[in-house]
Amino acid sequence: MAAKFVIITRFKHPVTDVTLYPVNKICLIAGLLSFGHAAAETVTLVDWQPWDAMSAADQWGVAPYCPGGYVAPPSDAPVMEPGDSHFQFDRAIRQSDQQTTFDGNVIIHGRNQRANANQAVYSPNEATSRLDGDVIIRTPEMVLSGANAEIDLQTDAALLNNAQFALYQRDLHGSADEIRRTEANRVVAKRLSFTRCAPSSNAWRLRSGKLTINNDTGIATAWNSRLEIQRLPVLYIPYISFPVNGQARTGVLIPTFGTGYSQPYYLNLASNVDDTVTLDYQPLYGLLLNNEFRFLTERHNGISDWGFQLATPTDNTLATEADSTLVEPVSDLSRWSLAHKQSGALTDTLGYDFSARWVSDQNYDPTFKPGAAQVSQQVANFALKQQFGTRSNGLKLAYTQPVIDSAEKFQTLDSTLTTAKAGNSAQLLYQTQQPFDQVTKPVSASDYELIKQPELSLVHKSAWQTLGLQSSERFSYGLFTRALPAAQQTLLLDNALTTALAATPAGDPLPTLAEAALVDDTLALADQSHRFHGALALTRPFDAGWGYFRPSVEGFATAYDIDNDLGYDLKAAYGGDNINQLAWRASLDQGLKLSLRGQHWQQTLKPRLYYAYAPLTEQAAPILDSTETTTFTLFSPSRYSSVDRIGDLSRLSTSLSYDLNWTGDDRLVLNLTAQKGIKLAQERLLTTGVADIDADWQPEYSDWLGSSELNLSRDLSLTASASVAHEWDQLNLFALAANYRPSGQAFMQLSADKAVIDSELTHSLNAGAYVPILQNVALIGYAQAQTTDLDPQWSDFRVQQVLYGIDYDNCCWNIRLAALEVTDIDDESVSLFPLLVERRYFFEFTLKGLAAGAGTIEDILNRLDFGYSGKLFNYR
C-alpha cells in the first residue's frame, strides 16, 4: 500500500513550505483510512444503511418496516488546536509557494467538517482548497457530495455543483444543480428535488427553485416548489418551511378533512412559548376558532385553551331530529369555552397550581369535541403549597358555578387551609353557597345544602417505642348551617306559622314558634349546629414476613350545640339544644402469607380475617354530614361516612388470595381472590333513631365477592370480578375484561360489566382495538353498548358510541381515516343500532419530514380512553 502523509496547517501563520510526515510516524485516530475506498460512491449509497444493518441506537426512531435510514459514520477527526486543518493524502505536488496539489484519497479535517476527494488543490494564503473527483463533505448534521467542490477552511464555506445531500436527523435527501454552504451551519441549494422516502422510492418528491437550511435555527425553507407523487405534479407551493431537527417551527400543521374541515396553525413564539390556532368548520355547527397557548419557564408552566364560535350554521334546518340537541345554542350568543391550567413556584419554598374551565352551555363539549361528555359545572381551583423542611402548608380554593342550561342551581366556594409536620396536621375548611340566578334557577330553602362555616380538624399521630403502640388523636369543630338569606328565613317562618295555624282548632290560642316547629319541621332548615368531636385510636401491630396481627380500638366523644336563626325553642323541638354522644369500636385484622417456591414457580396463599365490633350507644344528634352505607362493606369498622353516627355492628370479614408467579421473569401468572362477610348481630342504630329488637333476626351475609387475573403471557391477560348474592340466585355486579397488548401501541380489549353509572344500574359492553393487520397498517375500532334493564337480553342493548378507522403508515407518509357515531340522547328506537345518531368522518394525510401535528383523530382516540397509547411508530 502506498505511504500516506499528513500536514497540519494553522491559518494564523500561513504555511509557506510543506512538510511531509509519514502516517506511521504520528498518532492518528484509528480508522483514518476507512473512507478511502468508499469515496467513489454516491452519498445516497455511502451513508444510507439498511434497517437490519443499523445498530440498535441508530434504529431508534426508524420504523422496522422502513428500508433503512441515513447514519453519520463515527467521527475520526484527529485532536487539533482551534483553527487547525488536517490533511491526509497519498502524494503531494508542490507547484509554487502559493499552491500545492494533494492527490490520492485526500481527506481534509476542518473545524466542523470532513471532506473526501480524489484530488485537492490547496492555497494556503487564502486557506481554500478546490476538490475534484467523488467529493464528499460531512458535517454533524448533513452530508454533501458532488463531482467537484470549493471549500474555505477558515469559514467552512463550500460550493458543490451537480450535488447530492442528506440530512441525518430527518432522513431528508435529494439532489441539486448547486449547493452552497455559506457558513458552518447554513446551506443554500438551487434547482433541487428532495424527499424523505427511501432512495429507491418515488412515492413523493418536492421540486424547488431554492432551498435554505439553517442548522442554528433548525429550519429549512423552500421557494417555488411543486409536490410530485409518483413523478406526477399534484400541487404548487410558492413557499414552505419545515424543521430539520427536533426543534419546533412556526407553520401549518396537518389538516383534518371529512364531515368538516379543521386546520391548525402553529406559532413558535419562543423556545419555551408556543401557540396553536385552529379553524374548525362543521356544516351543522358553523365555524369554530380554537386557540391553545403554552409556556414553560424555569419556575412556571401553563396551558390556556379557548374556543369561540365565529359563525353559526348557514342553514339552521337540521337534517335529522338527532342533530337538534347539539346544534341549537342556548341563547343568541355564540358558543364558547375557556380553560387554563398553570403551575409553578413563586419562591424556592412556595408553589402553586391553578385550573379553570368555563363553557357557554353543557353540550359544548359533545358538539365540538367528538366523544366528550356534557359539562354541568364551571370550575376554578387554586392551590398554594409551601414547604419548610419537614413542615408543609397549603391553601386550596375550589369554586363552582352552574353552566347556564344545566340543572345545577348554586355557586359554591370551598376554602381550605392545611399545615402538617411529622405526625401532626391541622385543617381549616370554610364553605359558602349562593343561588346562581333566582330568575332562571329559582331555589327554595330545602335546596340549600348544609355547609361548614368553618370546620377545624387537628390530628396527632405518634408511635410509642416502649410498648410498640401507635396512636392517633383527632379533634374537630364544625359549624354547620345552610346560611339561609333573610328572605328564605321569612318565607320559612310564614309557612310554618300558616301550617300550625291551620292545625289549631278554632278558639285555641295562636301557636308559638316552638309549637309551629313541632307541626312543620321545615323550620329546622334554619338550624345552626356546632359540633365538637374528639377521637382516640390505639393500634398495636405485630408484623412479620409470614403474616401480621393488628388489634385496634377507637373511642369517640361528640357534642352538639344547636340554635336557630328564627329563635324558636329547640328544647320543644328536639328535647334539648345540647346533645352529647359517646361511642367506641374495636377491630382485629390478621393475615398469613404462606409461600411455596419451586424451580420455576412460586405459589403464595394469603388468608385474611377481620373482625369489627361497635356496641349500641345512644346517638340522637342531627345528621350533619353522615350517610349510611347501604351495602355490606367488607374490612371496614364503620357503617357511616362521618361521625354523627358510630353505628353498632359485629361483623366478620374474610378473604383468601392465591398467587402463582413465574420466577423466570417474576411475572404474576394467576391471581384468585374470594371475599365473604357475615353480620353477627342486628344493627339497630339508624339515622332517625334505634330500630326495635327483631326476635326473628338471623345472621346476614354479604355477597360472594370474587376476582381473578390470568396472564397467559406478557401480552395477553384476562380479568374478572363479580358480586353474587349470598343465595347464589342473583348476579348483582360484575366486570369481565380481556386485554391483548403485543406492543406498546397495538392492543385489543373486550369488556362487559354491570355497575352503577350516574346513580343508575347499567349493563355495558365495550370493545376497543388498535390492531396491525400488516406491519404498517392498523385498524382502529371502539364500540360501547349499554342498557339500564335489570335483567337484559341481547336485544335490550343500545349502541352509544362507535369509532372505526384505519391507520396506514410508511416512511414517506401517513394516512388516517376514521368515523365516529354518537347516539342522540332522545333516541327511542328499540334496535341495537339506534336510528338517531350523529356521524362524523375524518381524513388526515401527513408527508413525513414536512408535516407535523397530532390531528383530530389522535385527540378523539385519547379522549375516548379505551386503551389507546400512541401511533404505530414514533419517528426520530
Question: Can you describe what's shown?
Answer:
The protein is mainly β. The chain has eight helices and 50 strands. The chain has a 32-stranded antiparallel beta sheet that branches. β32 and β33 form a beta hairpin. α5 crosses α6. It is elongated and about 135 Å long. Mean pLDDT is 85; it is low at 1-5, 9-41 and 315-332.
Give a short summary of the structure.
By secondary structure, this protein is mainly β. A hairpin with a 2-residue loop joins β12 (172-183) and β13. The model is unreliable at 1-5, 9-41 and 315-332 (pLDDT under 50).
- Apparent shape: elongated
How many helical stretches?
8
* Average pLDDT, all residues: 85
How much of the polypeptide forms β-strand, as a percent range?
A: over 45%
Low-confidence stretches: 1-5, 9-41, 315-332
Helix content percent band: under 10%
Helix and strand layout, with pairings?
Elements: E1 5-10, E2 21-22, H1 43-46, E3 48-50, H2 56-59, E4 68-70, E5 84-89, E6 91-96, E7 99-109, E8 114-123, E9 128-138, E10 142-152, E11 158-167, E12 172-183, E13 186-195, E14 204-214, E15 219-229, E16 232-243, E17 251-252, E18 257-258, E19 261-270, E20 273-282, E21 286-296, E22 300-311, H3 324-327, E23 336-345, E24 350-359, H4 364-368, E25 377-388, E26 391-402, E27 410-421, E28 424-435, E29 451-463, E30 470-481, H5 486-502, H6 513-519, E31 527-539, E32 542-544, E33 547-564, H7 570-574, E34 578-592, E35 594-597, E36 601-614, E37 649-662, E38 667-679, E39 685-686, E40 689-690, E41 700-701, E42 704-711, E43 716-724, E44 731-740, E45 747-757, E46 760-774, E47 777-787, E48 798-809, E49 813-823, E50 837-847, H8 856-864
Antiparallel strand pairs: 1-2, 1-5, 3-4, 5-7, 6-7, 7-8, 8-9, 9-10, 10-11, 11-12, 12-13, 13-14, 14-15, 15-16, 17-19, 18-50, 19-20, 20-21, 21-22, 22-23, 23-24, 24-25, 25-26, 26-27, 27-28, 28-29, 29-30, 30-31, 31-33, 32-33, 33-34, 34-36, 35-36, 36-37, 37-38, 38-41, 38-42, 39-40, 42-43, 43-44, ...
